[in-house]
Amino acid sequence: MLRPLLISILSLCFPFSVIAAPPARALAKLNADEAAAYQMYLDEAHKQSLELRKQPIFSWTNVLREDGQTGHIYVWMKDGRPEAVATFFSAFANWAKPPRRAIVHEFHTLAAKKLWPVGPKTSQYEWQPQAGLAFKTVPDAPEVADSPTLRLVQMRDIARRFSGETLAMDQQRWELRLLPQPALRYQPTRKDVLDGALFLYVSSAGTDPEVIIPVEARRESDGPWKWQYGIARFTDRELVVRHADEVIWSSIENPNLKAAIENDYTIIRNPERTYTCYRSRLIDELPDTEPAP
Questions:
Q1: What angle do CA 167, 168, 170 make, to 5 degrees?
Q2: What pLDDT, on a 0 to 100 scale, did the predictor assign at position 98?
Q3: Tens of pLDDT along 124-145?
Q4: Closest to 217 in 3D by CA, of 207, 206, 228, 209
Q5: Most buried by CB count within 10 Å: which residue of 67, 80, 163, 261?
Q6: Cβ proximity of 11 and 65 under 8 Å
Q7: Cβ(253)–Cβ(223) under 8 Å?
Q8: What is the extent of the structural domain holding 92?
Q9: Count of Cβ atoms closer than 10 Å to residue 257 Cβ
Q10: Of all residues in the chain, what percent are helix, strand and coil, respectively (each to 5)?
Q11: Is 264 left (phi over 0), alpha (psi -120 to 50) or beta?
């Protein structure tokens, strides 16, 4: 997710020094606190709230960063289904005076309709999605199985048929690979979604996802269940996604899918703001050792 993203935001504009990284426990707590600072709603009146899943669904690393990077992915749920997903990470900022730690927030909606997030007042930016995530029918998909066990097998098979790549500004291409386990399996208590899973696709930079694909058994009204998918980008690079070797999503071909880098690399977002990533704020650097018991 954030290897190109705000690693680009932070490292392309500002140099970083090699220093001792804070302990993993301290970074995990920092990221958990950042996630807890957001409230998500399905309506403008803030009557229909989403629930933050307290534990991250995935922890990632990025080995290309000279100090390394560690991030955590969180979701906000409604009736057993994830409606928003975000990753949080930070980096030492020696360009700040005095040097500090820059905190980065990255979001994508998973809701079919517009979300209404409320972020902390300490953040210099807000996430303001203007649309929902577009779902499409999976080509040549099987009939949705009756058994939850068989449906998971079907979702895994569907996920394997997707592939992709990112293209950097220097034209370097990075092939994406599917992680073997879904980051989240869910069976909502609602009429329009029967079953689903979030699949992560990463590059060779580590386990930092570049795209998340929800695969779900969905239906309209009382119609038949059908396998559908959505594409949630988590990269500032150009992104191409294929299904069975056929391009189905391309920010190279479609300008409406591009992510614009703004304000000296401190915010990246697509035209509909369904995807947004920004440097939230600077904090004092964390200690590089665990506190004494």
A1: 120
A2: 86
A3: 999 999 999 999 999 999 999 9
A4: 228
A5: 261
A6: yes
A7: no
A8: 5-283
A9: 21
A10: 10, 40, 50
A11: left
Handedness of CA 14, 15, 18, 19 (dihedral sign): negative
Structure tokens at 236: 């500032």
Is there a domain that residue 292 lies in?
A: no
Answer yes or no: are the C-beta atoms of 96 and 113 closer than 8 Å. Answer: no
In contact, 69 and 89? CB cutoff 8 Å: yes
Q: Is residue 290 part of a domain?
A: no
**SS3 assignment for 225-239:** CEEEECCEECCCCEE
CB 67 within 8 A of CB 21: yes
What predicted TM-score, i.e. pTM, was given to this entire model?
0.91
Lowest mean pLDDT among 1-15, 36-50, 214-228, 242-256: 1-15
In a domain, 166, yes or no: yes
Which parts of 17-147 fold into alpha helices (H)?
24-36
CB atoms within 10 A of CB 171: 7
Helix, strand or coil, per DSSP, at residue 158: helix
Query: Does residue 64 surpass a pLDDT of 60?
Result: no
Condensed to tens digits (0 to 9), the pLDDT of residues 145-203 reads 999 999 999 999 999 999 999 998 888 889 999 999 999 999 999 999 999 999 999 98
Are 113 and 268 in contact, with CB atoms under 8 Å apart?
no
Q: Is residue 39 part of a domain?
A: yes
**If you search the block for the tokens 């880098």, which residue do you land on?**
261
State residue 96's pLDDT score.
84
Domain count, the chain: 1
Token digits of residue 87: 């990753």
CA distance 287 to 284: 9
